[in-house]
Design a protein that fits this description.
Blueprint: E1 2-10, H1 13-31, E2 35-40, H2 45-51, H3 57-65, E3 68-73, H4 88-99, E4 103-109, H5 122-125, E5 129-135, E6 143-149, E7 156-160, H6 165-181, E8 185-190, H7 196-209, E9 216-221, H8 222-231, E10 238-241, H9 243-257, E11 266-271, E12 277-281, H10 300-314, H11 317-333, H12 349-359
Parallel strand pairs: 1-2, 1-3, 3-12, 5-10, 8-9, 8-10
Antiparallel strand pairs: 4-5, 4-11, 6-7, 11-12
The site of manganese (II) ion has 2 residues, from helix 9.
């Protein structure tokens, strides 16, 4: 198979973890005889430095030409005081929208070898295996009007959370389809006791549920969902929710996996005629400027994102499973990065990447 992939390392630890993820990809391509065509592009802070904008037109063009996009992370502290429309993060919102990747899958799994890495009691975490499906192309991240207004008696700021029926419907379907292939439980998370967008959200989910009688549906208010996630995380199979709730709950989910460095993600858009998904793959963690350049970052989120890329954008389930197995083997060996609090000396980012390649 020809794997035509755009790599966007981005900022901070993004470049370090992406380097290891690409190494793993090369090993997979060699072992299973795939032709790998890699191109590299600019996104985020590095793109601002080199071109003046976080999402250059060239990157947009490359992302639309590629079969799949593998991303690191964006964000640099020197832009902290900049307005949202100029910041590195705006590049990420730009590419998500340009690629039309509206469903962000964030699997949260506990690994036996990492039970001690989670601050939660082992019996709560052991066996957690869920996927958060986060709406990624709408909601408060994109709604207008938005802005800071300085023309009145005092400064005023506003953001808008807006959803259309079809935006809710398409991501809801992704949730139901995933649940159908798993333990057949879907939890829809909203704030329908307060927000109109959530009331529409619930209406759509209830309507679509009629097509999935085999899937058990329940609704949780987002505040309660945040509590249930640490109280009874094993009760979840697939969770579907709007953009900002999903952003927040997935960081909370990271506690279950032991470290946010563990979490991969797949952002999926329209299906291609081949049945493969248009996809943008990135670890859930950010650019972590505090540890950038130190060869300390956990590359598992990025490597797990490679597994997701192979599975969703190319249908290469055997290769994806092999990458996941190799990761588990390395986790079991205890040679992991500092965030996972290993008993001995922590491994470096490169050592973990190398170990996964060897295991493959
Ligand atoms: C994430 C990140 C991004 C988001 C930021 C960097 C814009 O937190 O992918 O979870 O909020 O979507
Ligand atoms: Mn986030």
């Amino acid at each position: 198979m020809n794997l035509n992939i755009l790599v966007l390392p981005g900022d901070g630890i993004g470049t370090e973890v992406t380097r290891e993820a690409v190494r793993v990809l090369r090993v997979v391509a060699e072992k299973w005889n795939h032709q790998l065509t890699l191109r590299e592009g600019l996104l985020g802070g590095i793109a601002i430095h080199k071109t003046g904008t976080p999402f250059p037109a060239e990157t947009e063009k490359l992302s639309l030409e590629a079969d799949a996009v593998l991303m690191g992370a964006v964000g640099l502290p020197e832009f902290d005081e900049w307005p949202p429309e100029k910041r590195p993060e705006r590049g990420l919102l730009g590419i998500r929208k340009a690629m039309g990747v509206y469903a962000n899958l964030r699997p949260v799994k506990s690994y036996k070898a990492l039970l001690e890495s989670s601050p939660l009691k082992n019996h709560l975490v052991d066996g957690v295996d869920m996927i958060i499906v986060r709406e990624l192309n709408s909601g408060i991240y994109y709604g207008t009007p938005r802005g800071i207004y300085e023309d009145g008696p005092e400064p005023r700021a506003c953001n808008t959370m807006a959803y259309t029926w079809s935006e809710i419907e398409r991501v809801t379907r992704v949730g139901f389809e995933l649940a159908r292939k798993r333990r057949k439980k879907l939890t829809s998370v909203d704030k329908s006791n307060v927000l109109e967008t959530s009331q529409l959200w619930r209406r759509v989910v209830v309507e679509i549920a009629k097509e999935y009688p085999d899937v058990q549906l329940n609704h949780l208010l987002v505040d309660n969902a945040a509590m249930q996630l640490v109280l009874n995380p094993k009760s979840f199979d697939v969770m579907v929710t709007e953009n900002m709730f999903g952003d927040i709950l997935s960081d909370e989910g990271a506690i279950l996996a032991g470290s946010i460095g563990m979490l991969p993600s797949a952002s999926l858009g329209a299906k291609k005629p081949s049945g493969a998904w248009t996809g943008l793959y990135e670890p859930v963690h950010g650019s972590a400027p505090d540890i950038a350049g130190q060869n300390k970052a956990n590359p598992f989120g990025a490597i797990g994102s490679v597994a997701a890329l192979l599975e969703y954008s190319f249908g290469l389930t055997e290769e994806a499973a092999a990458v996941n197995r190799a990761m588990e083997q390395v986790l079991g060996s205890g040679r992991v990065t500092a965030d996972l609090k290993p008993a001995g000396t922590p491994a470096t980012t490169e050592e973990v990447g190398e170990a996964v390649c060897n295991a493959l």
